[in-house]
Amino acid sequence: MEKDYTYERRKWVVIAIVLAVLGVYGAKLYDLQLGDTNYGDAAASNAYLNRTLYPDRGLIYDRYNKLVVYNQPAFDLVIIPKDLKAFDTLDLCATVGVPLKEMKERIATLNNPKRFSGYQQQVLLRHLSPEVIGRLQEKLFRFPGFYITQRTLRQYAYKAGGNLLGDIREVNKNDIENDDYYKPGDYTGDMGIEKSYEQYLRGRKGKEIYMRDALGRLQGRYHNGLDDVEPVAGNDLKMSIDIELQQLGEHLMEGKIGGIVAIEPKTGEVLCLVSSPSWNPDVLVGRDRGKNYNVLRNNKYEPLYDRSYMAAYPPGSTFKPTQGLIFLQEGIITPETAFPCSRGFISGGMRLGCHGHGSPLPLRPAIQTSCNAYFCWGLKRMLENRKLYKSTTDAFDVWKNHMVSMGYGYRLNIDMPRESRGFIPNSTFYNERKKEGWTAYSIISDAIGQGEILASPLQIANLGATIANRGHYITPHVVKEIVGVGVLKKSLERHDTSIDKQYYDVIAEGMRMAVTGGTCRGANIPGWDVCGKTGTAQNPHGRDHSVFMGFAPMNDPQIAICVYVENAGFGATFAVPIARLMLEQYLNRDKGGASSAAADAMASRHTVMGWSPIFPKNYHSDEQQ
Predict the structure, then answer these.
(1) What digits encode the pLDDT tens for the residues 294-334?
(2) β 545-552/559-565 pair status
(3) Which of 182, 258, 500, 555 is 20 to 30 A distant from 196 in Cα terms?
(4) Residue 217: its pLDDT value, please?
(5) Cα dihedral angle (221, 225, 227, 232), rounded to 10 degrees?
(6) What is the rounded CA–CA span in Å between residue 321 and residue 440?
(7) Is residue 616 helix, strand or coil?
(8) For the chain, first and last CA: distance in Å?
(9) Residue 35 pLDDT
């Protein structure tokens, strides 16, 4: 009789299934016994209690060693769910000042094994005042499973620099997943310097190990504390910021929207980084942080958006020095080349307006008077030059590469989060955008910092530093030194432009003429040879923006600056007088700085209708009283 293989095949299928099931169970047993440490940790937690010791966060000083950010003790009430035993809830509520219903809800949430480990400490109440802690310590023995943990709260010696300094917040799920340093309830830097330098500021946590008996009661320090680990304080930071200059800048920008950036040209050290509207860093300290953060986040003027380096604006006429440099480098013009201006650039059936001044003009007076026509003629001559370039696109890409070398179109890599790269178009951009073709006339507005050109106030100030240095800049940075570590190498990188040094002297002379007898005479400070360039940047959404870029002194530069005020009209109206006061404050700091009366007068000139402070000037959170 012929053999039936059906049952034979079924036998092997059953055997395979049984082996697969055994394999799964075997792998799980291996993982539980050797791979998974949770059960071992739970057993260890029954025998020991590990209490985290939090380090002091690093302090922050300004460039003149003025203490700006420091710490004060703060206390959290924490629980270890597995240690909780029956206690008088009403007594606890009365001691810490929390309603009974809220207390029960908090404890129930933290005592949920599906959400939190029963063996790890969880924060029940944060930032308790010293008075509450004093009362609590006297009766803590009545509340088994409750412990007091000491932390530090940030304190600010100056009511300035909210966006610059940043703040501290509780870690979230992403923080914990991305860095095993953090556990639930820990804090991390958020925004500004606190975020950028978190790994240096936070220090290293310590721990104390306590023994338990069979009933889980604490029996003292394990090995008499020999295995305890002391916390290590974070590194202090010395900023390049002049905190008094920062304060003045925020004061001058009251009731206005925009930014101010000042840089020491020789070092790339940022002297101030002002964004307006600004906010007092005190408001994001303590138990009111969440409420106040929502106030800032929901404010229509977006105070959390740092316009000094995150925003991208049309640079307007502050862009013209870059055009003169490119035209000189490429041999399109000489310093003596003159172009006509009939109250504007008129050619090819188009007209781009300009204000009245002498005509024709060579380069230096063109910078002095901020002649639009001059730089439009220069760009047209460059893009149409077939002796030097095969096509308009080739010429434009040469132009674009020069712009990139001067710090435009890409991030400068300042040591702050979320820097804007601005925008400098290339030929590919126009080829895709203008399918019908394009010529010099199509993009002539690029020559005067309009059209598609966008730059941050940081990039514009960096141009001032580059001209001051006659052809190079150092990566802008706001931290001068990490104490115990030194200066980060990336903060010392030198960037040379593609323009010969000799041409920068011509541009600097034109900018000096603009201050002594041109569009920014209001920036002239006796004895300091200020060089400057105004800008009135066209704004399709409303009134023009007021801009100034400059540096001083001309031949021994100590400061380069950009002031950008949104919807404020001509550059000479707001940006120039603000820049003058900032320059006076820094250059004459040994003689008292800027006039307080003049500063107060400018602070009272608002460009935002119905302006009112986001928070009262005398704000203090409840925990700091």
Answers:
(1) 999 999 999 999 999 999 999 999 999 999 999 999 999 99
(2) antiparallel
(3) 258
(4) 63
(5) 120
(6) 19
(7) coil
(8) 100
(9) 53
What is the per-residue pLDDT for 22?
75
Output the pTM of the full model: 0.87
Q: Are 507 and 325 in contact (CB under 8 A)?
A: yes
Pull the structure tokens for residue 134.
């004093």
Give tens-digit pLDDT for 531-545. 999 999 988 778 899
Question: For residue 477, what are the contacts with CB-CB under 8 A and spacing of at least 6?
Answer: 240, 268, 269, 270, 414, 415, 488, 491
Distance (Å, rounded) from C-alpha 513 to C-alpha 529? 10
Residue found by looking up tokens 């023995």 in the block: 141
User: How far, in Å, CA of 502 to CA of 283, rounded?
Assistant: 50
Question: Among residues 165, 306, 156, 154, which one has the least CA distance to residue 241?
Answer: 165
Distance CA 226, CA 338 (A): 82
Strands 258-264 and 269-276: antiparallel
Radius of gyration of the chain (CA): 32
Contact 308, 275 (CB under 8 A): yes
pLDDT at position 79 over 70: yes
Q: Nearest-CA neighbor of 382 among 360, 397, 372?
A: 397
Hey, how many other C-beta atoms are within 10 angstroms of the C-beta on 526? 6
Amino acid of residue 345: F
Structure tokens at 212: 């338990």
Q: How far is the C-alpha of 589 from the C-alpha of 452, rounded, in Å?
A: 39
Q: In angstroms, how far is CA 46 from the centroid of its own chain?
A: 45
- pLDDT tens for 432-483 read 999 889 999 999 999 999 999 999 999 999 999 999 999 999 999 999 999 9
